[in-house]
Amino acid sequence: MFYRSLLFPDLRMTLDANDDDGLREFCEALHPAVVAEVIDELEPAELWRVLVSCDAELQAEIFGFFEPRLQIAIVDVADRKRLSRLIEEMAPDDRVDVLELLDDEQVESLLPLMAQAERTDIRKLLSYPDGSAGSIMTTEYASLPEEITVSEALDELRIQAPDSETIYYIYILDEGRRLDGIVSLRELIQAKRTATLSEIMHRDVISVRVDDDEEYVARELARYDFLAIPVVDNLHRLVGIVTLDDALDVLEEEATEDAQMQAAIQPLDESYMTTPFFVLAQKRGVWLVILLAAAFLTAWVMQGYEELQRSYVWMAAFIPLVLASGGNAGSQSATLIIREMATSEMDYRDKYFIVMRELRMALTLGAALMALSFGVAICMVPLAEAIVVAVTVFIMVIFGTTAGALLPILFKRLGMDPALMSNPLIAALVDVLGVIIYFSTAIALLGPVAKAVE
Amino acid sequence: MFYRSLLFPDLRMTLDANDDDGLREFCEALHPAVVAEVIDELEPAELWRVLVSCDAELQAEIFGFFEPRLQIAIVDVADRKRLSRLIEEMAPDDRVDVLELLDDEQVESLLPLMAQAERTDIRKLLSYPDGSAGSIMTTEYASLPEEITVSEALDELRIQAPDSETIYYIYILDEGRRLDGIVSLRELIQAKRTATLSEIMHRDVISVRVDDDEEYVARELARYDFLAIPVVDNLHRLVGIVTLDDALDVLEEEATEDAQMQAAIQPLDESYMTTPFFVLAQKRGVWLVILLAAAFLTAWVMQGYEELQRSYVWMAAFIPLVLASGGNAGSQSATLIIREMATSEMDYRDKYFIVMRELRMALTLGAALMALSFGVAICMVPLAEAIVVAVTVFIMVIFGTTAGALLPILFKRLGMDPALMSNPLIAALVDVLGVIIYFSTAIALLGPVAKAVE
């Protein structure tokens, strides 16, 4: 963003002067990520003019840094021949992401212009379901047979390098393309040049399966501090690799998605800035309507206590307080547990530990807030009423914390995303029962009608 | 977690049999990350026995995968000599993280046992402030002078490899250790063996400064899809590198911290599972108390309307509803904007765009919820009262959305973490003004007392 204001005027002038050499120089001088940021405010047709001034490889690199929306817009204005060339040049995982954005007609108009090998690769990658390891892996990895020497391997890597996403891990395959071992380029550089790969390779290769969840794959990569992790099919044949930079993107997206769900927003497919207004309004509105419905349920429950309220008018003043104390305690529990479930695997014992710990926490925090509430309330209302408020706060904190801890675990158990149990939703559920708890406590401690009508 | 139950019994037996060779074999057979997970439930003294069965390098690797709390516990039981050897073997960035956990006395008992070079390196890294690039960088990078050939460079890398965190990027330094260029090992492998590094290196090196914020550094790494980014001092001398796996850890921690702050929890220093109970209770309790204080403010404001409430008893039923509609809309805004600020840099224009967009969103969502509220409320209360509820919902959504959008931006402007503006805090602030809005609307539309006392 910082670069944009600095470089944009220069680009504008070069474009207006129809200076194609100038445009190429502009693109070549900067990192493709920076070029993409500077030019992304141009009209798609102008943007395409900038791109075609470079060679196809650089075009593909810059194009890969655009937001999906912009990529679609460029596809609409680009000529098929040059565009198919650009897409051929993209990394297999990135280009499949682009093709998945297009409609079938567009894909079918582009595929015939590409080489047979690329087409096969694309069709194969397109077949893996969204969210699987297959959908984020690339097929461009370096592989060698185990019988060659280190020296031969280094020569062979020179040939494979231009077509590999990384050559820092080399996968050793048998004749059936089954994954037999792995050796890092670092180890290769350090090894005796005459050693064979079978002598230096690691045979216990940590791999993931092509249908594993992308988030699990990303966490495995992060856990072992790998640069890439091999992806195998059910015959243990190597079908691709997932690199650390893609894993990082997956984890970042997942964190953003969880943050949105926690705040009762349907996850956005793109960034906040590029999501169209009405898509955003809908993804927020849906949940606001659901929460409004829950709030009307609370209102309806409260109407049932109208006689009591007429008798105990003082009670209304503390309704926001008792409800918030339950909702806030619940948000804390739910957020901690949802994030813990997202970032680490949990077994039965861990969940038991969490539930027990939250119960103890509920009692501790509930007691503390009850004492404080009593201390403040006694300055505002008579003793009996202060007791009703304090006792309700105690019950609400326990109830909110328990709901916040159990509901996400329950949701996960049911095979749903625990983050669906958003904080506002927990608060809304706590509210409904909260008013019942509040009024029941009042009835229990003060009786169903005020003894002396004031 | 899955491995633990499978492998733990085997380990237990080996330990009980005092079979040191067996322990060593156990550690060598598995990835250090897995070993760390399996053994982390042993008592520190037993754990140390497992560790010392391996050579110092493997000890250091396994030790690096433990949680900070466990590292401290092991330091307490380990003998100084072996421990100092283990720490010497750790990567410079990791070992500084460990030393930062210890008290000065412990550090001073360990340092004299280490080699002079390591000591100097440690003291230097310890001097960088927490949260800076310096605090997460490693000093073990591969560097070469520009005049040597590719072939010489490959030989030299064999020597540097064991002491470098990565050899996949090679930094080209002048005599004053100033950063002149960069070449990747991939490019080195592909280059003619007789070329000099000055011919193939990139001279426009993207770097960060040693006092840059760690989160900024992590985002830069992710943005350019680098494996590592060089860290320079103010004379442009190379002082270290930050690798992608460390960047990923920083971003994950940051996301966890933001999620906690959003739910009104003081950020935890360790994971939920390992944070001691009373530390956790305190980090949650502090905010619950602040929110309780805000809620008492709301109660106090409401007490001021007691006469009105006596006259309009029906109003109480809708208090949770009107307050929640403001709070929920505010949570959505705040969450979207805080995450957007965390994941991308924003200039003045972006902020203007966001504020304008949120105002429009507030009107749109407010109008929709007003219509819906009216539709439901009219089935529950007379027309005039339904209008009061619907109009209040409209104002509350606008007010909540605006507060949710503006407060994080304002906090950032004041140099504070925008995530401090947690969703419960926004809701609490909205509540205070919400009751005023609700009662004022009622007075405006229905008059200060009910016309016909029911």
Tally of contiguous helical segments of chain A: 22
The CATH topology of the largest domain in chain A turns out to be Tetracycline Repressor, domain 2
- How many structural domains of chain A? 3
Q: What kind of sheet is the major sheet of chain A? A: 3 strands, mixed
Tell me the radius of gyration of chain A: 30 Å
Overall pLDDT level of chain A = 91
CATH architect. name of the largest domain in chain A: Orthogonal Bundle
CATH homology-level superfamily of the largest domain in chain A: SLC41 divalent cation transporters, integral membrane domain
Number of strands of chain A: 6
Low-confidence stretches of chain A: none
Write the element-wise H/E pattern of chain A from the N-terminal end onward.
HHHHHHHHHHHEHEEHHEHEEHHHHHHH
- Largest sheet strand order of chain A: 1-2-3
Shape of chain A: elongated
Helix content bin of chain A: 55-70%
Layout of secondary structure:
The structure is a homodimer of 454-residue chains.
Chain A (H helix, E strand, L loop, with lengths): L1 H15 L3 H10 L2 H8 L4 H9 L3 H9 L3 H10 L2 H10 L2 H10 L2 H7 L5 H11 L6 H4 L4 E4 L5 H11 L5 E8 L5 E6 H6 L6 H4 L7 E2 L4 H11 L3 E5 L5 E6 H19 L14 H27 L2 H6 L7 H25 L4 H30 L5 H31 L9 H24 L8
Parallel strand pairs in A: 1-2, 4-5
Antiparallel strand pairs in A: 2-3, 5-6
Helix pairs in contact in A: 1-3, 2-4, 3-5, 4-6, 5-7, 8-10, 15-16, 17-22, 19-20, 19-21, 19-22, 20-21, 21-22
